[in-house]
Amino acid sequence: MLNANAKPTAKLAGLQVLRGVAALLVMWCHLKYNLGVPATSVSKTPLLSPELGAIGADIFFVISGFVIAMTAAKLGDNWRLFLVNRLARIVPLYFALSTCLFAWASVMATLHGFPVDVNFRQIFNTYAFIPLFDTANFTHPWIENGWTLSFELWFYLAFGCFIKIFNGRTAGRILPVFMAVGVLATVLCYHWNRWFLPKFLFHPLTLDFCAGCLLYHARNLIGKKQYASWSPWEFCFATWRVGHSFSLPTG
Q1: Residues 94, 143: contact at Cβ < 8 Å?
Q2: Tens of pLDDT along 148-158?
Q3: Is residue 158 part of a domain?
């Protein structure tokens, strides 16, 4: 059980367990590409299908929202420090790996005499994260699984803006409402296929981050009243979302 009054340096055991579960689910999801057989033939039990491993990404997003809200609440209105700390965790390593892989692919292409399979939108989405120039579909970055970091960085930027306007604690309560309204409006009203950006910014996957933010604040309230920990509720929410309930159109 998580204690809302625990020291800031204390490890949140629930987070560590869920991270482990999420990592195993993501690994199981990607394992399907190396099985050489249809996912449905892996097991007669639907719950063991590799397709359900995509739920691990949802759990990671919910955990990220929880940690972001917790971090921001401690920083107050210091939005610059929030963004610097968040970006430093992912950008340098991700840029280095992407550049190395691109350089390696270019060298191999030159040696073997074939063109590198890359385009402007892929390069832009790799280094800018936000798909400003995509049309009907989302173009994957150079590291294909980097699409998750595109959502991560978008949420960092949005949260940083709300910290600047309000403060860290208030941002964790207001931003989920803003995102939920945006998702609803986009799903109901935005059907234009010539610019993908609005569908990205208010994709239903962003609700995972929002749920994490709300769970952090709910945990504090529940903890003060000495009720149950938030972890089972987070896991239930992520399970209900079932990964690709709202798939990301790619091209």
Answers
A1: yes
A2: 999 999 999 99
A3: yes
Q: Which of 156, 10, 172 is nearest to 89 (CA)?
A: 156
State how far the Cα of 157 lies from the Cα of 143, in Å rounded to an integer.
21
Q: Is 250 helix (H, G, I), strand (E, B) or coil?
A: strand
Q: Indicate the number of domains in the chain.
A: 1
Q: 164-206 pLDDT, tens per residue?
A: 999 999 999 999 999 999 999 999 999 888 999 999 999 998 9
Please indicate, yes or no, if residue 132 is contained in any of the structural domains: yes
Spatial separation of the C-alpha atoms in residues 74 and 72, rounded to whole Å? 5
Instruction: Give domain status of residue 187, yes or no.
Output: yes
Q: Which two tokens stand for residue 68?
A: 């972001």
Residue 250 placed within a domain? no
With beta carbons less than 8 A apart as the criterion, state whether 28 and 204 touch.
no
pTM (2 decimals)? Answer: 0.83
DSSP SS3 for 183 = helix
Which residues span the domain enclosing 93?
Answer: 13-241
| Identity of the residue numbered 179 | M
Where helices occur in 76-205 by DSSP H, the ranges are: 79-112, 120-128, 147-165, 168-189, 197-201
Cα angle: 232, vertex 237, 239; to 5 degrees = 90
Length of the chain: 251
Residue carrying the six token digits 């033939």: 41
Q: Which residue has the tokens 């799903």?
A: 187
In whole angstroms, give the CA distance from residue 160 to residue 96. 24
User: Which residue in the block uniquely carries the two structure tokens 């191999």?
Assistant: 108
End-to-end alpha-carbon separation of the chain, Å?
43
